[in-house]
Every structure is written in C-alpha cells, then in structure tokens.
Amino acid sequence: MNLRQLPILLLCAVPLAAAPATAQEAEHDHANCPMHAQHMKDSMKDMDQRGDATMGFGHEHTTHHFLITDQGGVIQVEVNDPKDRESRDQIRHHLADIAGKFAAGDFSDPAKIHDRVLPGVPEMIRLKDAISWRYEEKERGGQVVITTADPAARSAVHDFLRAQIADHRTGDPMGR
Fold first, then answer.
1. Structural domain includes residue 159
2. Predicted TM-score of the model (pTM)
3. For residue 11, is pLDDT > 60?
C-alpha cells in the first residue's frame, strides 16, 4: 500500500453515523448536541435582527404577545418604557400596516423575520376573505385583533400564532 491509498482506507474504516429513525430521536439528537444552545442563540439573534429591520423598531425596547382566542387571536406589541414615543409610534405604524397586508394575503414580513413560511400562512391566504384583521391603538403601542367564524381559518390563525409564540419565546399560552 502506498501513502496515496491511506486516506481512502481510513475513510472506509470510520463507521458512518446512522440518521435518526424517528422525529423523537431527531429531537433527542438536537438536545444532546454540544452546540445546540449556541445554534439556538445565533438563530434567535438572526431572527431579532431581521425583525428589527423589517418592523422598524428594536425588539429590546418592546414586548410582543401572541394571544389565542376562541374567535382567532391578537398580535400585541407595546413599548417597555412608556416614555419611548419613537418606538411606540413605530409599533403603531407597523401594526396598522401589517393588518392591511395580512387582510390582503401578504405575509411577506413574517417570512422575512422568521426566514420561512410559518404554519397556517398558506391556509390564511386561501381563506383571507373569512378572516378579519383589525388594528387597534393602545396606550403603549398597538394590537391587531384577528377574528373569524370559519373553523379552518381559525385553526390556521392558531397555528400561525403558536409558531410566533414558539419562535419569539413569549411564554404566551398555546391555547387548546
């Protein structure tokens, strides 16, 4: 055997790791990854940066809530400091804009922020005429109240809000 054959021989001698057979095994593999915490931290940092750029205000100055209701849900954003009028006004502008975009079936902002199409979005686009997106001003920001009588649309709204709760780690209840 010559030295040029050694890398091939070593490669063949190293056993290859088997891919996880189930989703539970895959989740377990992620949890045991020594770099998992760093990957999650980097992912959150990237999402926060995309969110700040897309929404026009800094996440560190605001608090988001995604609330699931029997009629649909609520997207609520408020400033942490009641004296922060600049962020408050940016929140109000963003949420008023979002209510109009979502009503028209445009979910490009959440896709930019999350770097993916969130669960429920395709259904909400298809059922957009069955969903109402109403902007309301609040003392420290604003909210978008989402209502629908259509069970499929409500399920899609709930899926969308649950994904937001999970990605943003708001701690809001996930509903039923």
1. yes
2. 0.73
3. no
